[in-house]
Write a structure and sequence with these properties.
The protein is an alpha+beta fold. It has 13 helices and twelve strands. It has a five-stranded mixed beta sheet, covered by helices on one side. This is LicD/FKTN/FKRP nucleotidyltransferase domain-containing protein.
Length: about 425
Amino acid sequence: MQFPWDGDVDVQMPIADLHKLAQLFNQSVVVDFGNDMDNLRYGRFFVDVTSSISHRDKGNGRNNIDARFIDMDSGLYVDITGLAISETKAPDRYDGGLRNSKLERSRKDVTEAQRNAHLKVYNCRNKHFTRLDELSPLKLTLVEGEFAYVPEQFTTILVDEYQTKSLSVRDYRQMAFMSNLRNWVDRDKVLDLASHKDSDRKKRLAKIKVTPDLNIPDSVQLLMDNEPVLQEYLTTKELTEIHANELNAILSGISPSSLFFDDETNSLLDLRSTIRPDVFTWETIQKEYNYEQAMAEFNEKCQDSDKILSIKEGAEQLKKTSNEMEKSAKAKEKIIEKAVEDVKKETAQQAPPQPAQAISNQAPPKQQAQHVQPVKQAQLANQVQEPEPQPNQDVNEEPNQPKLLQQAQAPIERDML
């Protein structure tokens, strides 16, 4: 059974089979209709194989999974890793197979891949090593109601990976294993029953590392008080009973094959069971699913999505047009500025400025004399300025300026002729 705190299932396969899986089924959708045609399932699973399965070292350690079998509705998945011979050093527990050979660790001219091949030790990219005699021959069993294979020496592998306590521990992450129910249950609920809801006794029991197992009356009471626990027990009780008998046979040194095969016909017994409904079936029951209503909601979401996309595209187009107009306006300004500069330069080259005195002495044409006269008089009036009084001169005394008056009157007389 799957542990309640574990969100995935881990599967290992030979690297050659992983290559075949990638070649034939990568990016495929697998549809599960179940084992009973009278009770169809609607499971959908996606096969996703990484592009680096030929790399068998751990690397930076960020992704040690070679492939995943993903439930497209729930997001849960099966992690798949390949077992292969690699250049990663095998654990010291396998060094006994290298003693008194040309492949000892002291030899510098031997690669780790050569040693691993000699030892028949295989590993995944996360440095989980397994020897061939620990794997083969595989044992048939049931996992979550489906047939599967586990290693020959699975207890040895568990002890190497999780130490000896992994075979007997009954408490983990606020969960406690109840023998009568053959299930993991919330530890706090177990302590409530074991203490008979005495708070002081519950505190004392909570300090104990091992949760006390419930007797049959307390186990029945636990089922009556907790509907999810009751539902899990009813769903898994047949499967967990087979598993308990399987463990007893293994511990007694008896092959458990008789639990899975018919001795007379030597055929596989139909022990598979659907203990977990697919998401579609579950939601159909829980939410009273209606196909027509679901399709109407889906179409409405699609229309809303199209509207949002249209608005977004329109805003992006408007922004793009605004940017283009701004660029065009700036380009026109530069053209105009350049044209003005060119005109100024051309004008300066064609008509250089003349001295002011020369311009004032030029006589205008006779036909324009009447119009020019007031202008000339104004110009001359501006030119004729009274000199500042000298220090010894009276401010009321008329200044002596006969030459200046003669110069001013000369052009006026010419204009009057």
